[in-house]
Amino acid sequence: MDYFLELFFSGLTRGSIYALIALGYTMVYGIIELINFAHGEIYMIGAFTGLLVSGICSLLGFSLISTLCLAIVIAMVYAAAYGYTIEKIAYKPLRNAPRLSPLISAIGMSIFLQNYVLLAQTSEFVPFPNLIPDFKFMEPFEEFLGSSELVIIVVTAIAMILLTLFIKFTKIGKAMRATAQNRKMALLCGVNVDRVISVTFIIGSALAALGGVLIASHIGQINFFIGFIAGIKAFTAAVLGGIGSIPGAVLGGLILGWTESFATGYVSSDYEDVFAFCLLVIILIFRPAGILGKTNTQKV
Description:
Blueprint: H1 2-32, H2 39-59, H3 64-91, H4 100-120, E1 126-127, H5 147-169, H6 171-181, H7 183-188, H8 193-219, E2 221-222, H9 226-241, H10 246-266, H11 272-286
Antiparallel strand pairs: 1-2
């Protein structure tokens, strides 16, 4: 039973990070129907920003909690600036272009950011300090749930709740829902669609950076390529849950995390990706729009 719980919470931790990144994919797709393949690199940049901030804070003698909070806040702001800039440079000029053009632009931006960090940092794995202290009250549960995993799960849950409240009750959140439902009609009703799209990229990028700092602190190392792997997994989670659906992104991330964790624990770590993508194929056969996705019907 302890082994099962260990795998369960390990999968919940993975799934939480996938869900944070998947939210960026699904929000952007829901607003402008674009797959932002550079989103994984924003996650990676957030992790490297957290590393730089934590190094400066350690030299200044900050506590672990203070360092973690500062690293998260600065990484989220920095990544949000990147997301905003990418949208203005790579996507906005192609908003009315054929759908293949912004897709190629997104892939190009992803490759550019990978090589930018490769040249600015290093191609080797870089150690990341553990910024999450061990909590004494977690000692009875440390066999299957560590302090860093608890923080990741709790912070992710809080971020999801705040995002849901933001979209449901704020003015800009209502504008985002209106734009996602019908962009042209929202524009005619006075919604500033450009601002809505920018805010969507900013929020998605900030959430990805949050996940980057948390998982880097948990794993203990990063390199320039971590964004590609995490981005592919998060995109899979978004499709699995129903891309364009925020609850679907969360559900897809959790299902993917648990699938990988249990496949690693009970079968082999060599097959975790095989099980994950087999599950995706099976679900999409029976639910082409994803678990919580809606199939668009066109009247003829």
